[in-house]
Write a structure and sequence with these properties.
Blueprint lengths: L4 E7 L3 H14 L6 E8 L3 H8 L7 E6 L5 H11 L4 E4 L4 E3 L4 H9 L8 E6 L15 E3 H7 L12 H11 L3 E10 L5 H7 L3 H12 L10 H10 L1
Parallel strand pairs: 1-2, 1-4, 2-3, 6-8
Antiparallel strand pairs: 4-7, 5-8, 6-7
Length: 233
Amino acid sequence: MSIDYSLFLNTRQRVSVLSNLLDSIVNTTYNIDKLELLITVDDDDTQSIEFLQSYYAIPNLKLIIKPRPSNLHTNINQMASQSVGSFLFVLNDDVVFLTQHWDKITNQFYQDRKNDIYYLATTDTSIDKTKNTQYPSFPILTRKAYNTLGYFMSDKFVSHGGDVHLWRIFNSVDRILKTPIVLDHVMHNSQHNIQQMRKDSTAKEAIEMTFNNFVNCWDEDITKEIKLIEDAI
């Protein structure tokens, strides 16, 4: 059976929220057999590894165990390269799906465009986005969009910023389609949760990685990426 959606994410020491994400995928997906889920876990995170090795509700769950990376987008791009779905969908472990039958609904809208170059925009509940709130934290790319760009998110950004950069590229070439998918970004959906998130060791490390290797996602040149897409359209 062919795969419609390839979902992928990094996780570290967050079994509780990760469990909520996986359960929400099971509870909201119309056809779970047409979905694959790739998760990369650090090899020192035994709790997450043991949990995922015993989670059987998602048939096509692929666990990738690796040393802790210095660049989180390296993992993202490696998972994207291993994926087989028509639509590539990046997530965080602190996300919950809110849209019932999100896959069926989106297919009804965009199945006929899966073989073309498009960025599909989801909606999320993050309240701490910078500069504007138009960009989704969790975008979807068609397979052809990913292949044309050559990556899912640029590894110029070691942690935060890749989502903005990706949105700017596809917004500049008018290749964004709106989906009905709504995601609760749990650790970013209220000031209280943001304050709690900043105490989380994994979140603190990601923030430190960003500032120690800072690239301005709003100003980074996207001329090369725009030309790649325009030439392929």
